[in-house]
Amino acid sequence: MDTISVMLIDDHRVVRQGLRDFLELQEDIEVVGEASSGEEGVSLARELLPDVVLMDLVMPGMDGVETTRRVKGVSPSSRVIVLTSFVDDDKVFPAIKAGAISYLLKDISPEELAHAIRAAQRNEAVLHPEVAAKLMQEFSTPRSAEAPVDQLTEREMDVLRLIAKGKSNKEIADALIISEKTVKTHVSNILSKLHLADRTQAAIYALRQRLVPME
Questions:
Q1: Assign residue 166 a region: left if phi > 0, alpha if psi is -120 to 50, beta otherwise?
Q2: Spatial separation of the C-alpha atoms in residues 44 and 30, rounded to whole Å
Q3: Are 37 and 88 part of one and the same domain?
Q4: Given this model, what pLDDT does residue 199 score?
Q5: Distance (Å, rounded) from C-alpha 8 to C-alpha 21?
Q6: Pair 20, 74 in one domain
Q7: If I label 184, which of 20, 23, 53, 109 is the partner at 20 to 30 A Cα–Cα?
Q8: Residue 165: pLDDT above 90?
Q9: Are residues 15 and 92 in the same domain?
Q10: 110-162 pLDDT per residue, tens
Q11: H/E element, 51
Q12: What are the φ and ψ backbone dihedral angles of 204, each rounded to 5 degrees?
């Protein structure tokens, strides 16, 4: 059984201890480190390269959104799960755009948290119901100002659909039986043709255009 390495970033020691106490009971999960601030968390993530990071959003100094962005920068393979008390739009959307794969509230049951960690390791998102509803509302209606999808080639459409499903370049290359270099070229072309800044915006575009089902 592969062990999932987890790192905790939360400025409350009691919260970190409670998470550690529960997670250490799981045979397939190991807490490899914890940080009490965003700055410390980024440094530790660079050192440990954890599989999953549990991220608080409201912390002194660097907040959880910026910490998420920087953690993804130093450890791109780490899946960030936001674990917070807030479900406001001004926190949900920035956190997801920064690279969080899941967004949960701190009243989640321990069993649900363990499930979310295992899902994150499989690159699967788990969202609090209120967050899922917000995303559905945000993504359900195509925006007329967006560039038309018919600018893309058939292969670029294939790549875009896989981006929207959260697939990495390697996973896309394997699925389409092409090289990672070719995938990078397709991604660059997609962003350029659709006037998008990054993969997150590309995924949102695909959802708004209903190119993939909302799961």
A1: left
A2: 15
A3: yes
A4: 79
A5: 12
A6: yes
A7: 53
A8: no
A9: yes
A10: 999 999 999 999 888 888 777 776 666 665 555 555 678 889 999 999 999 99
A11: none
A12: -65, -40
